[in-house]
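Message: I would love a firmer grasp of how sequence relates to backbone shape in proteins. Thank you; the sequence and its tokens follow:
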Amino acid sequence: MKACCNFRFWSVSFLSLKSSIESKINTPQRRMKLMQKSSDSDENLSSHHHTKYDLQTPHPIRSPSEKLESLARACEILGIDDFDVYGDFTANPPDTSHLRRFENELAEVLGKEDAVFMPSGVMAQNIALLIHSQSNRSREKNSEQKNMFACHHTSHLVLHEQNAYRDLLGMEALIISTSSKANENKEGYDNEIGTKPMSLVDVQNAFEDFENKFSMNDKEIPQLATLILEIPHRELGGKLTPYDDILQISKLCKQKGVKYHCDGARIFEAVAGYNHQNNEKILLKEVVEPFDSVYVSFYKGLGSISGAMLFGTKEFCDEARVWLRRFGGNLYTLLPYYASSWAGYRQNFCLQNGFEMGASDIQLMTFGDKVKKIVRVVNLLSTDDDIKSVVTFDPKIPETNMVHVYIKGSVSSLEKVRDEVESKYGIKVFKRIREISLHSQESALGYESMLELGIGDANGNIPDDVFLKGWKNVSYGLKQIQGST
């Protein structure tokens, strides 16, 4: 009875919010605001003292109230007229649940049997590791064996999750490092900076070293249960493991009895990158077909409030729902997150319009268009004498819609110059920037700072010459501070 009361309360609250929003959407004041926003002219750019162009922000910036307006609008468009309750796990048939329809829609697009929506990617990937570690092959072994998984040295699980795999799951990581091969002369890679993505050879060598380290008669030999491959490698500027290597690594994992998991937080960007590289049409389901399980994020390239999804066989996903409950991710309702994620997918991948309030001034771009945009911009900046004297890119030619930017200047100097350029021209060249470790290869080459540039609908619609103007003035101002003009 209590659950029913809660459900009625939230339903009434949502409908009241929706009614209030609808009464305000088409007010003359709001229409005037949107008209002023879209009619801002380029002609007087140098005379504006407010930020007109934000070169580093990929998604349109929306206030919380605008986001909630968009959420109500998404529910209208997607036909969401009631709340899910604890994931609607028992919905029968599943398509009677809006959440389960969303999961089924994405599972079909990725070519997997089933999918489970989750609040976060950290939760999704740790659950995947747990399930694979407890597979039949693992259970047949000594129960006291320590389970391990293999991943690249820049994996999110290693760098950003406070050793959750060890402290929560009791697992250890087999780190596959490619940093020693940074200077390998390979077409498309900078011979001075950067690290190449994980390849078939890297995995083969890691597996061989792992096997040689332990005697096959050793009862304490760990069980290598899973290999995680991130595509694209976010910490490497969006570099991609070669597509043929993905297929061959799958065969190797099958031979070794190792489950193959895809960290596909940016899988939509990866597919566009492969198509751009190969000048052909590779489907999303073809890229993820070799993997036993796949994780996808919705708040990164798809711009949702938050949310992730885990894909695999029906048996795998049924078990994932059990672990979701154990992890505390089976919330009373996931509606705000899954509705925002569904809308983000429909808008940014399917290019379905109408979800965002005030977005009529933003031209939706395919992920392929975003790759072409950043390749064009990086080429433009890399060939300018002023810019290339203090800035370099990794990779030299972007492989997805993102790239890392290395700069010969301190963070404090760059922030000072950035603010001056923004004040004078209305161009905010970057928001987020960080110092480079003094012990890094990049630091030894004179680079002091770096940032990540990713292209989305917001900055993707900014003219190329604005990027050139912004970065040219930052480079010029930086050299003035350094006394090298």
The chain is about 45% helix and 15% strand. Residues 122 and 160 are 9 Å apart (CA to CA). The chain has two domains: 86-348, 367-482.
